[in-house]
Amino acid sequence: MVAKGDMFYAWAAEAACQERGECGGAVTALLTHALRSGMVDAVLAVKRGQDIYDAVPTLITDPEDMAETAGSLHCGTLLLSKLLKNYLDGAENMRIGITVKGCDAMGLYELAKRNQVNLDNVLMIGVNCGGSVSPVTARKMIREKFGVDPDDVVKEEIDKGQFIIQTKDGQHKGISMDELEDEGYGRRPNCRRCKMKVPRQADLACGNWGVIGDKAGKATFVEVCSEKGANLLDAAEKAGAVVTEPANPKGIEIRGKVENSMLRLGDKWRKRYFEDLGEGKERLQKIREETGRCIKCYACIENCPICYCVECSTKKSYLVEPGKVPPPFMFHLIRYAHIADSCINCGQCEEHCAMDIPNSLYMHALQVEMEKMFGHTPGVNMELPVLALVEEKSERDRLAATGSDQIFDIFK
């Protein structure tokens, strides 16, 4: 029997699934089995759109359609947690399987704390993530650094510290990520600072790190992180959907070294970004200047997984004077205060900003300071944030009835 904490090499039993999938197609096979067996009603995943720079969210109910989602898209920068909340009612009445990166899993946990997602109905298969590249940056990088027409690239991957492309004529070319990032290309800034590389909040944590020997490139490393994940892997193997063998001990060691190396790299980038941001008044002035470009399009709020309020305080005229562009600095201060202890550094506020304001950097820098003070890391478990947490609708009713803003008694 499979148990929490077990580690395996796994691959799809079906040859066609092995061919289509990444590293033996284990993730595709597991989700296909979850659908066929009725373990989930649907799978929320990502498929390739027009090209490798176009990641499209898709809801799949027919197991035969799972093949569309096979493989990886490092130039797709979607965050699935907010999509599940907004368009699938937070899995309240539907059992949903979902493939998650670290930031997706963290977003789901933070939404679940706020009663916006029902994790009991969510089956998460986590995938190791060294980071993603903005589609615009990727096209520019491929053209300028690789000397290749971006439209001629049919596949990309990040492996052994390199960004590697494959062109239509079958040629491969790779360049060191360190070189690319030192020149302003490479991964998104928030991905460089990220320290959630193996999403163990998921039911299974999968990836190619630690797969060695004759299974390298042909199997997926699977770490069992929950009873739900154990049940899926056990059932899928018994049904003949996947084949497994115990992970090579040397591979387990290598996987740990890769993860630790990525964590050290995250520390390096945090130090560089946060030191450049300055401290105290210097930091405040820099943020005021940068946010002075804001056109108040609300893309940051619409895409943030922590922003779930029905009545956003930034739209209250007594807090933020309406009709002004750029908006008063209070607009941004409300945002920072709202997620001070809960920012998961997903980068969506920066990715979608029409004015290229480094919102994610400011949010993340504040959250890290809160983490140092209180020891709370957002998104890693269901521990409540530092600030009082309330369910919005019932709390607004209470405030209206009492006229009081003292909410802390609710935890006694």
Automatic annotation (TrEMBL):
Highest taxon above the source species: Archaea
All copies of domain 4Fe-4S ferredoxin-type, residue ranges: 285-315, 334-364
Name this polypeptide is given: Coenzyme F420 hydrogenase/dehydrogenase, beta subunit C-terminal domain
Keywords for the protein's UniProt record, in alphabetical order: Iron, Iron-sulfur, Metal-binding, Oxidoreductase
InterPro entries hit by this protein: 4Fe4S_Fe-S-bd, 4Fe4S_Fe_S_CS, Co_F420_Hydgase/DH_bsu_N, FRHB/FDHB/HCAR-like, FrhB_FdhB_C
Pfam families for the chain: FrhB_FdhB_C, FrhB_FdhB_N
Source organism: Methanoculleus receptaculi
Names of required cofactors: FAD
Entry's Gene Ontology molecular function annotations: iron-sulfur cluster binding; metal ion binding; oxidoreductase activity, acting on CH or CH2 groups, with an iron-sulfur protein as acceptor
